[in-house]
Amino acid sequence: MTWKDVIHFATKGNPTPDKTVLKTAAEWQELLTPEQYQITRLKGTERAFSGEHCSTYETGKYTCTCCDTQLFDSSIQFNSGSGWPSFTEPIKENAIKYIKDASHGMIRVEVLCNTCDAHLGHVFPDGPEPSGLRFCVNSISIQLKNEK
Known about the structure:
The chain has 3 helices and 9 strands, in the order H-H-H-E-E-E-E-E-E-E-E-E. By secondary structure, it is α+β, with helices and mostly antiparallel strands. It has a single domain (3-67, 76-143), classed as Peptide methionine sulfoxide reductase (Metal Binding Protein, Guanine Nucleotide Exchange Factor, Chain A). A 6-stranded antiparallel β-sheet has the order 3-4-8-7-6-5, with helices on one face. The model has no long low-confidence stretch (mean pLDDT 93).
């Protein structure tokens, strides 16, 4: 995956997810903590360097906090120095949804879980090779499932 692919998805349409999970706001509020709801459903952002996965580099798969869909493999996590967990690519192409974000006076690409539309963070074209991407994700949006 490259920045060109990200821009294509953000402007021309996203890959079809394997499944979709739809819930009402009330159902999400019942399932999630207030902080999880604020970040994943209302597109909030946790403070830099405050999330539990900023310095976690254990082996496993990161799944969506809301629907448990696998999103990222720990083997492609890296320390970006940004204050949020960073990954070079999703676990598979259709795991992530890309949305052009023109908020806060800048143009960025928001990343969501493609299964349930949970806000994860943003992707930037300043990551390491081979993809050159940095998926900058809120720790509270993901859970690490350790491999046994």
